[in-house]
TetR/AcrR family transcriptional regulator
Amino acid sequence: MSSKQKRLPREVREQQMIDAAIQVFSRSGYHSTSVEEVAEVAGISKPMVYIYLGSKEGLFTACIHREADRLVQAVRDAIRADDPPELGLWQGLRAFFGFVAENRQSWVVLYQQARTQGEPFSHEVAAARARVLDEITAMVVAGTGLPGGGRIISAKDAEILARIATGAADALVDWLLDHPEETPESLSDRVLNLALVGVERATADFPVP
Amino acid sequence: MSSKQKRLPREVREQQMIDAAIQVFSRSGYHSTSVEEVAEVAGISKPMVYIYLGSKEGLFTACIHREADRLVQAVRDAIRADDPPELGLWQGLRAFFGFVAENRQSWVVLYQQARTQGEPFSHEVAAARARVLDEITAMVVAGTGLPGGGRIISAKDAEILARIATGAADALVDWLLDHPEETPESLSDRVLNLALVGVERATADFPVP
Amino acid sequence: MSSKQKRLPREVREQQMIDAAIQVFSRSGYHSTSVEEVAEVAGISKPMVYIYLGSKEGLFTACIHREADRLVQAVRDAIRADDPPELGLWQGLRAFFGFVAENRQSWVVLYQQARTQGEPFSHEVAAARARVLDEITAMVVAGTGLPGGGRIISAKDAEILARIATGAADALVDWLLDHPEETPESLSDRVLNLALVGVERATADFPVP
Amino acid sequence: MSSKQKRLPREVREQQMIDAAIQVFSRSGYHSTSVEEVAEVAGISKPMVYIYLGSKEGLFTACIHREADRLVQAVRDAIRADDPPELGLWQGLRAFFGFVAENRQSWVVLYQQARTQGEPFSHEVAAARARVLDEITAMVVAGTGLPGGGRIISAKDAEILARIATGAADALVDWLLDHPEETPESLSDRVLNLALVGVERATADFPVP
DNA sequence: GATGAATGAGGATTCATTCAT
DNA sequence: AATGAATGAATCCTCATTCAT
C-alpha cells in the first residue's frame, strides 16, 4: 500500500510533512512527538523528513515559520474584512476570538509548545512571534480605535494591550472549547460586559494617574 | 564527589528535591528535564527521588501541589494584609502581578508546563489550578466589589474573569520582566488606565445587553 | 566491532533473534536474561529487538510460539513417519523422548521458564501449551489404542495422561542427559518395563473401581 | 507502628524471615522477589535480612535448606504413618499427591524456582534435591513393594521411578489445584486406572525385553 | 539489636538519525 | 526520489547492598 510512493515534487511533499507535523506537534507537544509519527501521518517514510527538513528541530522550525505566516495573514484579512474604520472594541474582540478559535493548532504550536521548550527555539520563535504580535497590536489599535479617540496611547501601551489580548485570548479559547454553547460572539459580549462592570466600580476608588 | 551523604530527615530532602525540580522543570520543560539533572541540582542521587516521590510524574505532581499551596496562600495573605476592606481592583491587580512576578518559576511550572503536557497531568493539575482559580475569582469579585455593587455576575462570568486575569497576567509578566523600569504597581496603573480608555470608547458604540 | 550492518531482510533477522533468545532464555532464565545479551548473541543491536518484537515479553512470546509450532510439528511427523498403523505405546514414548532430548532448549523455554514466570505469560503460554498438550494427548490416545480398545477414557483422563507424559518426560530428560549410556529407546524400554512391573504388582491389591 | 521492633532472639527472627521468603519466592520467583518485599512480609527492615542471612542468595539458600529438611521429614513421616508394610501402589500415590499438595510452597521453591535459576544455586540445590529424591525413591519403592514382588528392579530403575513420580506429581499437582472437585485420592484412582488401561493394551504388542 | 537514609550498577525502552539499496 | 534496515545515546526506573545513628 505505502511502498514506493508516487514521486511528488518537493514543494508538495514538504507541505504534507508540515501539515502532519503541526497536527501532531499541537496534539502531543514537541518532545512527545516522534519523527516516526509525523512521517506516518504524512504518509511517507522517516528519511524523507530528514532529506527535506534536515532534523526534528528543522521540522518544528518550518512549522513555526509557516504558521506565523498564516496567522499574520489571517489577522490582516480580519482587519481588512471590516472596511468601516469604526469597528469598535466588540468587533475587535470577536475577530480575535474567532480567529484564534479557528486557528487553534497554529496558535498552540506557536504560543504554547514553542514557549515551553528550552533554548533551541528561542531565536526562531521570538522573531516569528514578534511578527504576529505586531500584527495583533495593529489590529487591537485599529479595533479599539484608540489613537483617534479619547486618550492617546503610547507604543508601550499598545504593546501591553496586545499582550493582554493574546494572553486573555489564549486562556479564554480554552474556556470556549470547553463550553460549546458559547460562540466567539457571546464570549465577546460577556467579556465586554464584565469589563464595564469592573471598570465602573473601579472608577469610584481608583485614582487615575 | 558528593558520595558522603548528609543523612537528612525525609521532610527536608523532599523539599530539596521539589525546590530543585521546580527550578529545572521551569527552565527546561517537563520532557527535556531528566530526573538525573534534578537529582544533581538537589545534591542527591537519582534513586532518592524514586524512593520519596515514586516517579518523574510523581515528582512533577509534587511540584504542582506545593506551588499551588504556596500560590493560594500568598494570594490570601496579600488580600488579608491590607486592612482597609475596600481594596479596589487596583489593589487586587497589584497583589497578583507582584506575586506572579516574584514567583516566576512556580508560575511557569503551574501554568505553562502543566498545560502543554498531555493526559498524565490533566487530573492533578486541573484540581490544583481549580483551587488557584477559585481563589483568584474570589479576589477579583472582592476587588471589584461584586456582587454587592452594580451588576451581579454569574459563576460563569466569574470564571471568565479569573481566566482573563491569569491569562493576561501570564502574558504581562513576560513583558514586565523585559522592562525593568516598570514595577508591578506601574503596570497595574497602565492596565487599569487602558481599561478605562478602552471601555470609555467602547461604551459609545457597544450595545450593552 | 559489528558496526557494519549486514542489511538482512526482516524475516531472517527475526529468526536469528529468536534463535539467540531461546539459547539465552533457556540458559539463564527469563529474568536473568538481558535483551542486550540476546542482541549480542544474535549479532545485532538492542533496538532491532524492539523494532521487530516490541519488548522483552514479546521476544519471549515469539520464542514460545515458534517452539510450540516446531514441537507440535515434530510430534506429528514422528507419528506419521512410521507407516504401520499399530504404533503402540513404545513407539509413542520413543518419539516423545527423542524429540524432547534433541530439543532440550525449546523444552526448557516452553515448560520450565514459562511455568515459573508470573502472570504476563499465562495467556500466551497457556494457549501454546494447550496445543502441545492436545497433540500429545492425541498421540497417547493413538499409542494406547484407546478408545477403540478396552476401556474408554474421558477427556479429563486424557488430560491427566498428557500431564503425566509431559511431567515425567521433563524429569526423565534430566536423567537421560546425566546418563549418556542410555538412549531414548532404552529409556522407553525401562519405563514400559517398570510400568508393567508396577501395575502387575498393583493389580494384586488394588481394587479396580 | 513498626519502628523499634521488639528485640527477638536471633533464631526466631531468622525463621520469620525464611517463612516470609518462602512465601514470596514461591509466589513471585527468585528474580522478581525483592528483598524489600520479603522484609515487609516478615515485618522487619531490610538490613536485618543482610545482618542475618548475608545476601539475597543467602536468603534463598536458607529457604532451600530448611524446606529440604521439611520435605524429607514429611516424606519419612508419610512412610512411617502407614505401618503395614503392604501399602500397594495406590497407597503410595495417594501419600505422594497428598504430600506435595500440602507442601506446595516448599515444592515450588525447591523444584520449580531453584531449577530455572542459573548457576549460583546449582551446588546447594543439587545436594538438597538429591536428599529429597533419595527419600522419595525410598517411599516409592516401599509404596510399590517392588523389591519383594515379581521382578527385581535395579537402583537405576528405582531412580527412574522416583523421577517419574516427582515429574508426574509436579505436573499433576498443578492440575489438582485447578480442579477443586478432585482429591489426592480420586486423582490416585484415575492415575492407576489409566495405567491399567494403557498397560493392558501395551502388553499385547509390546515386546518385553 | 534495629532501622531510616542513601547509592552504584544495571536493565528495559525510546528516539533521532544514518546507510545501503 | 524513496525507503527498509540499523544503531548510539539517552532516559526512566529498580534493586541489592551499605552506612550512620
